[in-house]
Each structure stands twice: as structure tokens, then as C-alpha cells.
Write a structure and sequence with these properties.
There is one protein chain. By secondary structure, this protein is α/β, with parallel strands linked by helices. Helices cover 33% and strands 16% of the residues. The strands form 4 sheets. Strands 3-2-1-4-5-6-11 form a 7-stranded parallel beta sheet, with helices on both faces. Helix 5 packs parallel to helix 7 and helix 5 packs across helix 9. Bound molecules: nicotinamide-adenine-dinucleotide and uridine-5'-diphosphate (UDP). Uridine-5'-diphosphate binds next to helix 5 and strand 8. InterPro entries: Epimerase_deHydtase (IPR001509), NAD(P)-bd_dom_sf (IPR036291), UXS-like (IPR044516). Its cofactor is NAD(+). It holds the Pfam family Epimerase. Keywords: Decarboxylase, Lyase, NAD.
Length: 342
């Protein structure tokens, strides 16, 4: 049975304008693409960081520059299992879940359990030590949206039975757990709905569009457009996204509503293919492959709530974010084609 333990919420203010207080922060999914960038930001802000990860899709390479840091530590753990001897922390970021469709569909039952059991385990951990909690939710909670752009009030158009459901419905259930724990007064839980985000340190074999197109273009291989390429996405550079997540965690008052974070610059998939081809000076052909089942046709965030609450908006234009991303994939330090995720 779930524990009803609740610790008093820890002070989260920054000491009346003095230097920001140092906090102990747990980042679940810390070895992933976004998690590695978030751990680095939190260390730069002066916090103590504990990254926790099963390494299902994450890579220790994402944390390599942090491993020697005196305020950093790594725990190898699957959040579906209760964490015995859990560290006492001030804040918990839950990013633990594969984000790429081929990766979250590789073991769909585990994806669902990660979102439900895993999120519950971390919420209980936060309740036990009075920690503030931030859940990395997703624009996928809107499914194949009938409202455009998507505001947080839109309830979505999601298949509960299709191949994306383990992720979409799992993330919706995780949001439910967060808001129930908040209403019960057990955890100061906050939820960000992240729209497609890209940048250096994505895995070359990740399967998402930006990493696929860049790796294909750099290798002179055909760029694979699924379907006609008229479907759209809105791409946010990683530094913008991480800044927004940290801002919501730092907000003194819980908004008690989810917050969209993304870049409203909507592009078609065919446009992205042309842009990557031209920015890499690639002669790669474009080939079409079948559109995956339930692939959303359009996606664009309404970020009015993030602007109003956090004063947040993206600063990096797509071309400016693609440049360092391409340079990273082209660089010697970037992993080339990696073995498929376990
Ligand atoms: P990622 O796959 O690179 O990172 C996920 C990390 O979680 C990996 O390190 C993985 O090993 C770890 N993980 C997965 N299951 C786990 C488990 N059961 N226990 C412990 N660790 C586990 O993906 P990402 O792009 O960094 O995404 C991070 C989070 O942000 C995810 O929750 C994802 O749903 C969310 N998100 C990302 C995007 C995006 O565009 N990047 C968009 C929407 C939502
Ligand atoms: N996509 C594509 N070619 C690829 C990878 C993805 O055309 O090699 C398409 C995919 O069908 C979707 C869009 O690009 O319409 C974004 O896919 P991604 O997997 O990056 O994210 P998501 O579908 O979760 O938004």
C-alpha cells in the first residue's frame, strides 16, 4: 500500500535576493539527452545534483564532463523499482522515460510502467522528504490534435490502444498522479508539457527526426521522410527548454496547471529535410517511407501561459540551433551509429 508519509515542504526561496540557495536536486533520467543538459545547468547554478538513470536510452557519455564534479553523483536505478535508502533532496525532476517513438515502442509495457509506477515511486520519494517535484510531460498528451495551436486547456485526441499509447497515455496518467498528489497536499508537483526539442547530445540512433536527418545528410544517405512530409512539428532548442524547466521549478507559487514549453515556429517535415540538406551541403536524396500509425498531423504550442507565468519564451531560432547540433554530430566527440538501445 502506498505510504502516506508527508514531510513539511522545504524552503525553496532564494534568501531575499542574496546568492541563490544551494539545493540537493535529484534528476531522474539524468543520463538522457535533456537530463544531461539539465544536470549541467543545475551544477552551474551551484546546486548539488544526483542523476538517477537505468541507462535504457541514456548514455554515461552525456554525464562524462560532470562525473568528477564534487557536487555531482550518479545512481544506476530503474524508477519502476522502489529506491531503498533514497537520498533526501529538495527537488525532484522526473525526466525518466524514453522519448523517441522507436525507443518507447521497443518495450511498450515497460514504458507504461515507467510513467505510472516510476512516477508514483518518485512522487512518494518527494512526499517523504518534502521535495518539490517537476514532471517532464509531453505535447503527446494532445495526441493528433483537433485544436491548433494547442493550449493547455485542450484535452487532447489520443488513441488509448495504438502503438503510441504506452507513451501518450502513460504520460497522461503520470500527469494525473502529479495533480492528485498536489490536490492531496502531499507533493508540490508541477508539470511541463514539452514540445519537440533537439540539440547536441541526441543519440545518433535515437530515431527522431532531427538526429535522423542530420546523420543521414552527413553520411550522404537518403533522408527518410515518413508519409508525404506535410505533417508539422515545432522545434525548440535544448538550452531554451532547459531554462524553462528550471524556471517553473523555481517559481515560488505552484501554478496548479500544466505549462507548455516549446518553440511556436511550426515547420513541415519536408521543410526540415530541405533545411538540413542545405545546412550540411549534402547531396543526399529524399526518400519517402510509410507514415507511422497515429503519427500526429500538426503540432504547435501556445506558450501564452509560460510567457505570463515565467516570462519565458524561446530565444534560439531553428537555423541557429541546427548549426551547433550539426557541428556536434559532425564532430569527433559525437557518437556515430550506436548499437540499438537495450
Ligand atoms: P532520452 O531517452 O534521451 O532520456 C530519457 C532518460 O530516461 C534516459 O537516460 C533513460 O535511460 C532514462 N530512463 C528511461 N526509463 C527509465 C526508468 N524506468 N528508470 C530510470 N531511468 C529511465 O529522452 P529525452 O529527450 O532526454 O527526454 C527526457 C524526458 O523529456 C522524457 O520523459 C520525455 O518523455 C520528455 N520529453 C522529451 C521531448 C523531447 O523532444 N526531447 C519531448 C517531450 C517530452
Ligand atoms: N519523421 C520522418 N523521418 C524520420 C523520423 C521522423 O519523417 O526519419 C517524422 C515522423 O513521422 C513525425 C515527425 O518526423 O511526423 C517527428 O518525428 P519524431 O519521432 O522526431 O517526433 P514525434 O513524432 O514524437 O513528434
Amino acid at each position: 500500500m502506498a505510504s502516506q508519509r508527508r514531510a513539511a515542504p522545504r524552503r525553496q526561496d532564494d534568501g531575499g535576493g542574496a546568492a541563490p540557495a544551494r539545493r540537493r536536486v535529484l534528476v531522474a533520467g539524468g543520463a538522457g539527452f535533456l537530463g544531461g543538459h539539465l544536470c549541467a545547468l543545475l551544477l552551474r547554478q551551484g546546486h548539488e545534483v544526483i542523476a538517477l538513470d537505468s541507462l535504457q536510452t541514456g548514455l554515461m557519455a552525456n554525464l562524462a564532463p560532470l562525473l568528477e564534479h564534487p557536487r555531482f553523483r550518479f545512481i544506476h536505478h530503474d524508477i519502476c523499482d522502489r529506491l531503498h535508502d533514497a537520498p533526501s533532496v529538495d527537488q525532484v525532476f522526473n525526466l525518466a522515460c524514453p522519448a523517441s517513438p522507436p525507443q518507447y515502442q521497443a518495450d511498450p509495457v515497460h514504458t507504461m510502467l515507467t510513467n505510472v509506477l516510476g512516477t508514483h515511486n518518485l512522487l512518494e520519494l518527494a512526499a517523504g522528504c518534502g521535495a518539490r517535484f517537476l514532471q517532464a510531460s509531453t505535447s503527446e498528451v494532445y495526441g493528433d490534435p483537433e485544436q491548433h495551436p494547442q493550449t493547455e486547456a485542450y484535452r487532447g485526441h489520443v488513441s488509448p490502444t495504438g502503438p503510441r499509447a504506452c507513451y501518450d497515455e502513460g504520460k497522461r496518467a503520470a500527469e494525473t498522479l502529479c495533480f492528485d498528489m498536489l490536490r492531496l497536499g502531499r507533493v508540490d508537483a508541477r508539470v511541463v508539457r514539452i514540445f519537440n526539442t533537439y540539440g547536441p547530445r541526441m543519440r545518433a540512433d535515437d530515431g527522431r527526426i532531427v538526429s535522423n536527418f542530420i546523420c543521414q545528410a552527413l553520411a550522404g544517405e537518403p533522408l527518410t521522410i515518413y508519409g508525404s512530409g506535410t505533417q508539422t512539428r515545432s522545434f525548440c532548442f535544448v538550452s531554451d527548454l532547459i531554462r524553462g524547466m528550471a524556471a517553473l521549478m523555481a517559481l515560488p507559487d505552484n501554478p496548479r496547471e500544466p505549462v507548455n514549453l516549446g518553440n511556436p515556429g511550426e515547420r513541415s517535415i519536408a521543410e526540415i529535410a530541405e533545411l538540413v540538406r542545405s545546412m550540411t551541403n549534402s547531396a543526399s536524396r529524399i526518400v519517402h517511407r510509410p507514415l507511422p500509425v497515429d503519427d500526429p498531423r500538426r503540432r504547435c504550442p501556445d506558450i501564452g501561459r509560460a510567457r505570463a507565468l515565467l516570462g519565458w519564451q524561446p530565444e534560439v531560432a531553428l537555423e541557429d540551433g541546427l548549426r551547433p547540433t550539426i557541428a556536434w554530430f559532425a564532430g569527433a566527440g559525437a557518437p556515430k551509429r550506436l548499437p540499438a538501445a537495450a
